[in-house]
Design a protein that fits this description.
The chain is built from 14 helices and two strands. The protein is mainly alpha-helical. The chain has a two-stranded antiparallel ribbon. The protein is globular. The chain binds 3-hydroxybutanoyl-coenzyme A. 3-hydroxybutanoyl-coenzyme A binds next to helix 2, helix 6 and helix 9.
């Protein structure tokens, strides 16, 4: 019987050799907990992240924009579901995960606690927020836990479409009238700093980074990814012809990276402590959706119980006598239903 220590060193060795950890493999309890924490925070972020954008679906300026925004918001729901499913493989239930969100125990990304005031915010979110998400999430496609890394591959492909739709909105506004350029600039002014906060606290204030990187859950530090984001986005803003609201932003010729000003970490801490402009509204919206969806969960449960009891979707309930009824050809009632296009008589 291997000791806990031998198991741990065998586990770390697998990680070091880039062997993926799968749900049935042995893993240290803290690895499991770290994954549940990160994946669930990520799943909640996707689901809460639908709210600020959904606010603009009915007000998108034309059909093309509306269709793209609808598709994007639906994608976020899908991302949440892949991630919840990945998290469930670690031995926690979906209901427990939702409970953690609704009670405020589990975090979700700080960025979704800001309001979307104009249509340009939808452009800025796609460009900056999805841009930051891609920067942070592409390395997660190589996370050491199999179900998480596989979910991330598809998520990243979709995020890249989201980033482009946002940049395209910004480009259209920036090439438009003076008022439209003003809207784009105003959105950049409001979303820039919160986007930098998405990457999490500075490396020396990040309690989880060192262990997460040793376990290869995270592949890069928060500051490293933030710097990459600043480098890429600064040049995109130059292309758009709008200014990043940071007077200290400047290219450092020695490092080839853009230096940037101080992030307001007090604001970040307040947001993750629940005191942002929209925290309460976001959580209320999720709790209401959960309560309003109770009948769907009950119906789905009843349906699956029926199926488990041996009936198929849409077929009449099994005869309580346990004897299958036969149609004229001796077919069972379910088969008769399939081959007979006439609707079954409605029986009260
Ligand atoms: N918002 C809220 N909480 C944050 C945060 C943020 N932007 N950044 C860090 N935190 C929290 C951490 O969760 C942790 O809190 P906890 O101990 O209570 O769990 C604490 O601050 C300390 O931070 P660490 O840096 O030590 O934490 P991590 O090592 O987990 O790093 C992370 C934080 C970089 C966000 C990492 O968890 C991660 O990469 N997560 C996966 C990606 C993710 O969740 N992205 C969220 C956005 S998803 C999205 O944007 C949807 C898209 O459609 C746009």
């Amino acid at each position: 019987m291997p000791t806990e220590q031998t198991q741990e060193s065998y586990f770390q060795d697998k990680i070091d050799r880039e062997v993926r950890i799968e749900p049935t493999d042995w893993m240290p309890d803290n690895y499991r907990k770290a994954l549940i924490r990160q994946i669930s925070q990520h799943a909640h972020s996707e689901i809460v992240g639908m709210l600020p954008e959904a606010n603009w679906i009915t007000r998108a300026p034309n059909l093309k924009r509306k269709a793209a925004l609808l598709a994007k918001v639906q994608d976020e729901a899908g991302h949440g579901l892949y991630l919840y499913a990945a998290c469930e493989t670690l031995g926690i239930t979906r209901d427990e995960l939702y409970e953690q969100l609704h009670s405020g125990k589990a975090k979700y990304s700080s960025i979704f606690n800001y309001p979307t005031l104009t249509w340009a915010d939808i452009g800025a979110i796609g460009w900056l927020v999805d841009g930051a998400a891609i920067m942070n999430q592409v390395p997660l496609c190589r996370a050491s836990y199999g179900p998480y890394s596989r979910a991330m591959v598809r998520i990243c492909k979709e995020e890249s479409f989201h980033q482009r739709q946002g940049f395209d909105i910004m480009l259209t506004l920036c090439r438009g009238t003076e008022a439209q350029r003003g809207m784009a600039q105003d959105a950049l002014n409001r979303w820039w700093w919160p986007s930098l906060m998405m990457f999490g606290p500075r490396d020396d204030d990040s309690p989880h980074s060192a262990q997460s990187m040793k376990w290869k859950i995270k592949r890069n530090s928060n500051d490293e990814l933030r710097q990459r984001f600043v480098d890429i986005t600064t040049e995109q803003a130059q292309f758009l012809g709008i200014s990043i609201p940071d007077p200290e932003l400047a290219l450092d010729p020695e490092t080839g990276h853009y230096r940037y000003g101080a992030i307001n970490w007090e604001e970040f801490k307040a947001i993750i402590a629940g005191q942002g402009p929209c925290n309460r509204q976001r959580l209320e919206a999720r709790k209401t959706a959960w309560a309003d969806g109770a009948w769907v969960r009950e119906a789905a449960l009843a349906h699956s119980q029926k199926r488990a009891a041996g009936t198929s979707a849409g077929a009449p309930l099994a005869d309580p006598s346990g004897v299958a009824r036969s149609g004229p050809t001796g077919a069972t009632s379910a088969e008769t239903n399939l081959s007979n296009p006439q609707p079954a008589p409605y029986v009260k």
